Amino acid sequence: MTRHRVAVIAGDGIGPEVVAAALAVLEAAARRFGFALELERLPYSADHYLATRETIPDAAVEHLRDDVDAIFVGALGDPRVPDNVHARDILLGLRFRLDLFVNLRPVTLLHPSLCPLRERPGGRPIDFAIFRENTEGIYVGAGGGLREGTPDEIQVAEELHTRKGVERIIRCAFEWAKANGRTRVTMSDKSNAVPAHRLWGRVFADVGAQYPGIEREHRYVDALAMELVREPERFQVIVTQNLFGDILSDLAAGLVGGLGISPSANLHPGRAGMFEPVHGSAPPLAGKDVANPFAAVLTAAMMVRELRVPAAADALEAAVRAAVAAGVMTPDLGGKSGTAEVTRWLADRIAH
Length: 352
Known about the structure:
This protein has 352 residues and is an alpha/beta fold. It has helices at residues 15-33, 46-52, 58-66, 85-97, 163-179, 198-208, 221-230, 242-255, 294-306, 310-326, 339-351; strands at 2-11, 35-42, 70-75, 102-108, 127-133, 137-146, 154-160, 184-189, 215-220, 237-240, 265-267, 273-275.
């Protein structure tokens, strides 16, 4: 039996609840499909930070880099921690320090009732993926401030784009499109206003020419945001920079049911990835049996797909789709079920 070493950071707020739900469903899949999970539960959270003033130590980062097959994260964020320094150090820290340069956000409409847009003739599905560059752009933190707290305060934030960084995320998008039968990749920037973004256009043309079976198209980010609302079903693969990917992926989540149903993966091919549902920690909802576990379960599906157990991933995704169709949902999606009931339903569906 294949064993997969998975480090778990349950996090804050509803994080531990959705992680527990996802792992229960995942264990049912492991039993059915004949693999095993070696879970290592790590303490890093707001509670840990408040008790120790430690976010995540260097030794833990090295351990996650060298000794595990995947990292599964719940949600991080707590109003007791000023500026959520622990969440930033853990999430952004691991993305940068482990060089997880791909943030992959699948956007799939599981049921027509979840889409807030009016029904369209033909009923084409919404099913695309966003590839967000995860380690460059404005999130590198370059810049600084002068005369803070005065009427003459100045703040400067600088973007960073390297040819290496741009090329590898664009190549990943084309490789994924090729492997998944997609025929179009859309690259988004704001090169009409930001000259530095022209690097993206040049690299997109160079890399795209190596994939003659895949159409490539360019959209300015503001136009793309409009088109995602007007005609989301035409998109197949979108690749863009860090900030734009952050914004567009949340917009896209709204088209298919919201953040409570949206998974994500932070990847570097050939290395252990970090998998996290993209919703927040929602501390006021913790412990009330109302947290939506779908995003965490779909994130677990992404994880086992990366661990090369595609049948288990397909079963997890099918179980969530079936739950939505059956109306077994938490209140945020209009359902009447609690977290525990949804979890049991999904696990039973997987087992049988």
